């Protein structure tokens, strides 16, 4: 499995630091490099003896993620963890394993740009019971199950947008080194938000204090310092609360919570370090302010107005609507969510679908997201039907969860398309999602990095 954080870059950092602990880290890294070097030159070792394994996949149909007309029938040749050729009827190389998926439709591994793999609402009882009796350690113990459920549902990549205690960093790294099964992850670590805002624990006793849940910072300097700390601890992107939210305790669902100057500072700092910014925003004012500040994506975008649509179009900002989460809260959350929060969910649900319809008609960039973690992990694909009900064609909905999502992540060269050079992340369903988008809720076969993790050919 290819790690995105290469060992080679680390000794340079370590060598500049006089601390003993860093020198030890440097020694450990050098030793690891020597071991792998030795393995490469010892005759008969795994690296030398076996050529990269090739697999030829056959399927009735391929939707490659780009929006191109499906290929029927389809063959995809894989070597190691990468796709090396795509065609209608490729000749299998002599030693290749053939995997025949018969009548299935093959697609790129799906991408969810808005998950919380370390959380699952209601898992530890109601909100206050959970706050009083559980900690981030409880979440850390079970997070790998959420990752596996997500992968089994066909989501081979996620952008995880907010987690307490840096559990997301540990989960991402455990998946990358093969210790647990799960999707490729980009992680945001602590959500960056204002005192009393969406990420703060508000309306509790002033004598209660919760540490490590979220990143609360006010003012440009404090925000910059928090962002630097998160990047130091492993953040791949920065999540910012531009407005109030549904599940937090504020009365408003969409009032702005950061000034334009604060958000500009956040974007400037994150971009300086090569990190994108995802802004949680429901209300129209906060959405416009966040776009103006230069954020890369607006999450939820529920109460988006026409001015916001025009601004998003002008600035090339991507919207990540999350429609299913609202429907789930209203239908299934029961007592896990207090009445005040359910009322806020109701307020945004209908308007959010209309916002998607208008944004799509105006040609604003959209990418697929769900807020999984508020609802049970593995149900992510239920978002597709709501997108189609809101005016997207099935092909556009698929592009949102493949190539367009990869573009937002900055990973177009790795995932989101079935094309040579990309990771062999593929999924299959027995239905035709272009005729019935809910076929994506029934993914029966999943390959990640050339390894079948679910269905025929699973090792
Ligand atoms: Zn979220």
What is the number of beta strands? 18
CATH structural architecture of the domain at 110-377: Alpha-Beta Barrel
How much beta, percentage-wise? 15-25%
Q: Give the names of the bound compounds.
A: zinc ion
Which structural class do you get from the secondary structure elements? alpha/beta
Structural Rg: 22 Å
Q: What is the mean predicted local confidence, pLDDT?
A: 87
Shape: globular
* Biggest sheet: strand arrangement: 2-6-16-17-18
Separate helix tally: 15
For the largest beta-sheet, the strand count, sense and barrel status come to: 5 strands, mixed
Span of the ends, CA to CA: 15 Å
**Poorly predicted segments:** 1-46
CATH class term of the domain at 110-377: Alpha Beta
CATH homology superfamily of the domain at 110-377: Metal-dependent hydrolases
| CATH fold-type name of the domain at 110-377 | TIM Barrel
User: Helical percent range?
Assistant: 25-40%
Overview in brief:
With 459 residues, the protein is of the alpha/beta class. It has helices at residues 10-15, 20-41, 46-49, 127-133, 136-152, 167-176, 220-232, 260-272, 284-293, 306-315, 324-332, 339-361, 383-389, 394-400, 403-409, and strands at residues 54-59, 61-62, 74-79, 82-87, 97-100, 105-108, 110-115, 155-160, 184-187, 192-193, 215-216, 237-241, 276-281, 297-300, 318-320, 426-429, 443-448, 451-454. Among the domains are: 7-48; 110-377, Metal-dependent hydrolases (TIM Barrel), CATH 3.20.20.
